[in-house]
Amino acid sequence: MVRSMTGYGRKETMYGAFRLSVEMRAVNHRYAEIIVRLPKAYGVLEDPVRKLVAEYVRRGRVEVMISIDEAASSEAEFQVNWDAAEKYVRALREMNDRFSLSEPLAAKDLLQLPMVISEKETVAVEPQSFCEPLLEVTREAAKDLLSMKKKEGQKLAEDISSRLADIVSWTREIAQSAPVVVEEYRARLQQRISEWMQGAPFELDMQRLAQEVAFFADRSDISEEITRLESHCTQFSELLKQPEAVGRKLDFLLQEMNREANTIASKANNLSIQRLAIEIKTELEKMREQVQNIE
């Protein structure tokens, strides 16, 4: 099945108190290139992630953005340093006694003093412990990306197949018209010579006329080009059904088909054939634009 090189996929999951989020963006590229962006502390996980994504990407540039964030907790995240608080209270009471002060002491006053309250320290988690859950959510994001690439690839294949059918039809028309071209040339040439020979003191050399027609037939023979073009169309249609990456092969075939169409247009001394060859070249150019998006 034809797959597009462009697509998007995103998945996230919870691992304990951490939220793991994976986002993938794929764009056109000549080769397969996978770029993984994740927090610096988890750099050890980059290689396993890249290898996993490579199972789903055959060609194109894929940017994998990973975030690992600790989710906010509904419980208190602060702790009181009771030793420091008791020292502050004793010191304040001594100051009240020494200076005969009667200022009341409130808890909010203590909380404003240094080292009385602090944020709880989070327990350090080894990056390797995230490997399995991260790879799992990465796999789901890759499947999401692949699904979009397949849908877009199907639309590309339908459009290209439609244009290919037109090219096949035009090629058959050219094949039917080609033999008539030589006969038309023979008739035109003979008529012109006959008109010119009216009243001439010598007779028409039919052997020389036959040689001229034969030379024209050889020079304007496009049977080989038609055969190759038909063969390329058949190969192109078969490649669209293949499961592997076929983008480069399709691009190569389009170049060959365009070369045959150019030769037909230049060799065929016939307006209808040249018009059909131009139509073929126009569709080939549109097909090539589409093929640039195929893996």
TrEMBL record:
Tell me which family the UniProt entry assigns to this protein.
Answer: Belongs to the YicC/YloC family.
- Name its species: Brevibacillus borstelensis AK1
Name-wise, this protein is YicC family protein
As one GO molecular function, the record gives:
hydrolase activity
Cofactor(s) for this UniProt protein? a divalent metal cation
Q: Which InterPro entries match?
A: YicC-like_C, YicC-like_N, YicC/YloC-like
Chain ranges of the Endoribonuclease YicC-like C-terminal domain: 174-295
Domain called Endoribonuclease YicC-like N-terminal: residue spans:
2-157
